[in-house]
Fold this protein.
Amino acid sequence: MFPEAVTAAYTAAQAHRAALARDFAARAEQTATRLARHPHTAGRPQELTVGQCARYRIGIHRHLGDLDTALAAARRLQSETLPTAERRARGATDTARTLFDAGDAAAAFAQPSAPRSVFEPKLPPSLP
């Protein structure tokens, strides 16, 4: 179970399947913790980390409508542990969206690295 577990958790959250989302997220975190104790030494980057799981938790709980838990996950996230600028920006974006949904627009706009597109309404794709 590698990055697919957190993707499955996020997908389950988007489908409002809370128990399944939490189960996949917990399994991913357990796997990431186990991998961290026994890192791969062949020079390949680790595909699933505890930090990545924490970043996903923000979006998972936001999609489930549990903004307090999403904000708690955002406070625990240590962005410097994320391996790329894109993942750090995604963490800031997810945090900004959660803050915005919670009614704290000022804090949402203050998020570093969060693109302004966070605050634009999502439009459904156009049909031909």
User: Anything to note?
Assistant: Residues 64 and 124 are 20 Å apart (CA to CA). The chain has six helices and no strands.
